[in-house]
Amino acid sequence: MSTTLHTNNMVSPLFLATLLLVSSAFYPLSCAAAPADGTTDTSRDALLCLKSRLHGATTAMATWNHTTAPDFCTWHGVSCARRPRQPPLVVALEMEAQGLAGEIPPCIANLTSLVRIHLPNNRLSGHIPPELGRLSGLRYLNLSFNALNGTIPFTLGALHNLSSLDLGGNGLSGEIPALLGSSPALEYISLSDNFLDGEIPLSLANSSSLRYLSLDNNSIQGAIHASLFNSSTITEIHLWHNNLSGAIPHFMMFSSKLTYLDLSQNSLSGVVPSSVANLSSLTSLDLSHNQLQGSIPDLGKLAGLQSLGLSYNSLSGIVPPPIYNMSSLNYLTLASNNLEGTLPSDLGITLPNLQTLSMANNHFVGNIPASLQNASSMMYIHMGNNSLTGVVPSFSSMKNLEYVMLYSNHLEAGAWTFFSSLANCTQLLKLNIGENNLKGNFPANSVANLPKSLTALTLRSNNISGTIPLEIGNLSSLSMLYLDTNLFIGPIPFTLGQLRNLAMLSLSRNKFSGEIPPSIGDLHQLEELYLQENQLIGSIPESLASCQNLVALNLSCNTLGGSISGHMLGSLNQLSWLLDLSHNQLSMSLPLEIGSLINLGSLNISHNNITGIIPSTLGNCVQLESLHLEGNLLQGSIPQSLSSLKAIQVLDFSHNNLSGTIPEFLETFTTLQYLNMSFNDLEGPIPTSGVFSNTSGVFVQGNPYLCANFAVQELPRCFSSESTKEHKFVIPVLIALSALAALALILGMFIFWLKTGYKSNENIVHSYMELKRITYGDVIQATNSLSLANVVGSGQFGTVYKGWFDAEDGTVAVKVFKLNQHGALHSFIAECKALQHIRHRNLVKVITACSTYDPVGNEFKALVFEYMANGSLEDRLHNHQRGSLSLGGVICISIDIACALEYLHNQCTPPVVHCDLKPSNILFDNDDTARVCDFGLAKLIHGCSSGGQSGTTSIVGPRGSIGYIPPEYGMGGEISTQGDIYSYGIVLLEMLTQKRPTSEEFSDGLTLRKYVEASLSRTQDIQPNLTTEVGDQCVDHIPNLQECNTFALEHICALRLFKLGLLCSAESPKDRPTMHDVYGKVTEVKEAFFSMDNCSNDLTLLRQKGGR
């Protein structure tokens, strides 16, 4: 029936009244079937009936005894109206928080004179009896915060005298009865914290008496009726955390009584209506956590507004200035929108009563106003994840401050006075200024004076240097300390052991040295400990066994030695997230106690010196999802007990000395996605199903005795047992024969070069014979049989593969030449000549060469280089591998390239011209240092003149790559160092504009150089985030910073680089500078750029954050 009423929102009052009269016939009188409580016996019986159905409140209902207390009006919680010479009438039941339990019986309706029922905060369950609808005199009903369920009886709509209804905090479901809106006296309705659904009944929205409506925290859906917002009586509307949708209705001019409006945490869309300014009595407005768009309207007319919440929407534009002048505001949250602009300098003066200011996750720029400390009542500041700059202001006057969240901005510490000012904030709980540009030494005195109330301190990802002061141990309330990714040095302070409440400690990615202090073991509440990527030595302290609440422990990438303590592992059986001890110098065998880590999800002990066998107890770690044991000295077979690791997803045993066969149980691991058993001594056939059917997720190369019954990774086919035995003897013989063939080939080449007169080639052969010798078989094994999966690059004359020869060389890059390509042999010889004597930190190092024949007699040539793990400049510029280059990144890369070319041109004898400088030939190593590679077109220049050609190798094909070839080469001009300088200039302009010189937009005579040259007068066209129009006086005189104090230094530096790029790419070679001059100019720009405080963090963080 309630559904019918809900769908017909235009039901007439006459129909509702008739329906109530009819429906009342279906509810017979209960208990004694008394028609009313006009007699003493009727009232007493109804109360005793109520007592018999309720329980759990022995004290509250102890007086409900007609034998000891015949006058029920004296019973606890019962109020009566006494009449002369007539029985008293029970008018109220009031028992709040008395522990009442059980179901409300229908006999409560026999107390027909009830005016007030107040039973909140008990444990009442079951349905609300619909018989309550017969209590025609009831004015107040409060059953909130119980365990009632079922639907709201529509019969409550018959209570025409009911003015207050509170059923919040139960488990009620279904729709709100439309009949509730027909009660002419109803002023207060609270149905919050239930499971109600459906729409808000129109009859409720049209109520002429309603003053307070709370439907918070339900599943109410649909649109909001405009009539609800335009009621002349309603003062408070609470609708947060529902499923309301559609636009917010407009507010009429006469909606002036509304003081409180909360529509947060719904799915409302559209804009914030400007008519909200008509709500002149409004004191609180919360529209946060919706899908609102557009700009914030002018709310300046709301002079009494104290609380404004607009966070977690998609609002854009600037904050209207009148909002910053609403002096009554004490709560302002605008977080997580797309707002922009600056904060007014007088913010703390115009909003002196602010207690909460949340503007995080927007695009605000500029400084945090120093006037903010004028808001002395401030308790909560959250401005994280913006683009705020300048020095963190003082907080000295904010004595009630509890939270300061300024992370992910560009803020600076200055003289760290803000840190000292926090001593006055005696209520401070959390301080987070991580991911900013704080630099300088950690101030010991300020740390000592930080409030003892502080529970969380986060300064991660800054440039803070020096040591951590011992006074850190005074912050006895700390539960979280994040100081990772800084420049801290020295030992980890032993006083950290005094922080007995510490649950999370992260000191990773610093330069801490010395041993891990044993006092860390005193942190018995510690749950997460991160010390990775430091310079720690010594053994893992046994005292860590006392940290028995640890769920994550990461000590990787240090120089820790000794063995892994079995006692420690046995004590840390609560580890569930992570145990990472990789990349250290740990030795000895894995203790059996590792099996006690039964809750562990990720275990990494790779790249140590662990010996012995894999302990069978490891199979007890049934929650493991990731297991890394690679890069150790483990022996023996893979234990059968690991078959219990059913949750495993990543399993890596590679680069050990494991033997035996591949266990068949690995086929049954349905979650396994990555399996690496390469470079061991495994033998026999590999399994065929499960993860092995996905060859891209399985790596078994480097196991010479493995075979396959199907085509996989170029493994040999399995033979019978006799054939297998013979196979083991054939392989060494083949290897020996290949080595002899390689030596014979080298000797033959040596004799050939002698006969043909290439005396310089004699030195090349001699040089490479002194390097590590590798065979064709070595190359095939290292590159997984020249697998396509190993290809990392390909050019005109060769293909580059990722490979592995041994632990000494690690991962390498193997360039295999395409000798069927005309000019490839000359390219190999040219590269050998160029690389035989040169060694420089900005050149990719050659490890060795291979010149031999493959098994079918084809000539085979390869060069082996260091592997550059961080990709190429081409990737970063045009494939967005690491994001857009910052100006600091451009400067660093420019320095690296210039340094390499200056070495080739001026420090090599004879000088070397690269001839093919371009972004794809500029790689990045593990430290993100740029290195020049690919000398396949390189040319040696004998004598002082670039025109000298004696003894050089002729170059086949184009002298460079299109777009980077100097003009004189195209007209048959001689190869010279000036050609490299031209290419350098084009690369520099490409980095600054992020436009390829071969882009389609450069046509009809327009080139990248001409584009830049024409745009210098309107510099906003070129990298608007890097440049701005400034005077030539400052551009041409960078060192004189006093003359440029009105300009942004980074813009000046960018323009200097543009001018240098144009100079290097001049049409005529004689107009270009030498590489020595170029290196000097770029160095000058670098020194200027990193001389200012606001820029000095860029270089330091480049290699930590990938800022290049």
UniProtKB/TrEMBL annotation:
The protein's enzyme class: transferase
GO cellular-component term (any): plasma membrane
Chain's role: Receptor kinase that detects X.oryzae pv. oryzae protein Ax21 to promote innate immunity. Following X.oryzae pv. oryzae protein Ax21 detection, undergoes cleavage, releasing the processed protein kinase Xa21 chain.
Residue ranges annotated for the Protein kinase domain, each copy included: 786-1090
Membrane topology: Single-pass type I membrane protein; Single-pass membrane protein
Keyword Ribonucleoprotein: no
Keyword Lipid biosynthesis: no
Highest taxon, organism lineage: Eukaryota
E.C. numbers: 2.7.11.1
Residues passing through the membrane, by range: 729-754
Swiss-Prot/TrEMBL catalytic activity: L-seryl-[protein] + ATP = O-phospho-L-seryl-[protein] + ADP + H(+); L-threonyl-[protein] + ATP = O-phospho-L-threonyl-[protein] + ADP + H(+)
Chain positions recorded as ATP binding sites: 815
Organism in which the protein naturally occurs: Triticum turgidum subsp. durum (Durum wheat)
Family, per entry: Belongs to the protein kinase superfamily. Ser/Thr protein kinase family.
Compartment(s) where it occurs, according to its Swiss-Prot or TrEMBL record: Cell membrane; Endoplasmic reticulum membrane
Signal peptide: 1-25
Location, primary (coarse class): membrane
Name of the featured protein: Receptor kinase-like protein Xa21
Annotated GO MF terms: ATP binding; protein serine/threonine kinase activity
Keywords, in A-Z order: ATP-binding, Cell membrane, Glycoprotein, Kinase, Leucine-rich repeat, Membrane, Nucleotide-binding, Phosphoprotein, Receptor, Repeat, Serine/threonine-protein kinase, Signal, Transferase, Transmembrane, Transmembrane helix
